[in-house]
Amino acid sequence: MTNSNAYIVCEDLFKIYKIADLEVVALRGLDLVVNRGEVVAIVGASGSGKTTLLNILAGYDTPSAGKVAVGDKDLLRMTGKDVELYRREDVGFVWQQTSRNLFPYLTALENVALPMMLTNLSTKERKTRAEELLELMGMGRRMGHTPEKLSGGEQQRVAIGVALANHPPLLLADEPTGELDDATAGEILDLFGEVNRELNTTIVIVTHDPDIAYKVGRVVLVRDGKTSTEIRRRVSYQRITGEAQAEADLEEFTLVDGAGRVQIPRELLEELKIKERARIVVEDGKLTVVSGD
Questions:
Q1: Which of 75, 79, 229, 291 has fewest C-beta within 10 Å?
Q2: Is residue 152 a contact partner of residue 205, using CB atoms and an 8 Å limit?
Q3: CA distances in angstroms from 234 to 83, 193, 217, 247, listed in the order given
């Protein structure tokens, strides 16, 4: 399933939460591969498992079974100290709620410089690095402002700077434009594109943006805890942009996981009157699914 350029590899991933005497299955054998330097959008209904996947990739949660690797890190075999180093050096995270990304009593410059205090950089080096990131974020003239003096879009720009403070090769974002108006959301997605282009950062974004397929090279739909459908551009494209490119020629695929499983959309099953059983017929190189009831 893997390839030489694969950076994120999830295979048959399960996550089960115990709530009182109940077990809730958030991930049910999920497979996903993301290449180094790629931008991928993850979409799905509430409760589909997409945020659980993001939390596992960030090192905030541990899968119940399966395999998950980021670069040369096996996330299932890491010790507590390994996880701490991974979060500090390998991954940046941007939350939807700006209040979770920034300390309200610190300036933009101080917020971005703060994660670097855990490194060996000097005070001068931390300040220089923070200034460079804020310039890249388009916040060069707002470095001395605290979050309350910044707009929602400006706060998210600073939050992305914080996430990138320690040069992580992976950036994860959970609904980063969910609280922004359309114009500001487009600016933030453009900024992700600039980060990807300038730093070659691998980016995975969870979003409800209905037009995301026209803004990014690959969209993966998570349904019932598994990746089910993928939308790609016919012409190779790995970037992200804030403006929907309506002329983009898209292809939609049903994903086949490592165990040979596929998810057939409910509306198609109803149209074909397939209920509990189906017959699979192979003829002339084509596979046909028909009702077996």
A1: 79
A2: no
A3: 38, 20, 9, 11
In the chain, how many domains are there?
1
282 in a structural domain = yes
Measured distance CA(22)–CA(289) in Å, rounded? 35
Judged on CB neighbours under 10 Å (0-12, 13-18, 19+), 61 is middle
Q: pTM here?
A: 0.89
In a domain, 167, yes or no: no
Distance CA 169, CA 184 (A): 25
> Buried (b) or exposed (e) across 73-85, using 16+ Cβ within 10 A?
bebeeeeeeebee
pLDDT tens across the length of the chain (293 residues) = 446 789 999 999 999 998 888 888 899 999 999 999 999 999 988 888 999 999 999 999 999 999 999 999 999 999 999 999 999 999 999 988 877 889 999 999 999 999 999 888 899 999 999 999 999 999 999 999 999 999 999 999 999 999 999 999 999 999 998 888 889 989 999 999 999 999 999 999 999 888 888 888 899 999 989 999 999 877 666 678 888 887 778 888 888 877 777 877 777 778 877 877 888 888 887 888 887 77
Range of the domain at 270: 264-293
∠ CA 8-244-207, nearest 5°, is 45
In whole angstroms, what is the distance from residue 101 CA to residue 163 CA? Answer: 9
Please report whether residue 34 resides in a domain: no
Of the candidates 168, 170, 165, the residue with the CA atom closest to the CA atom of residue 36: 170
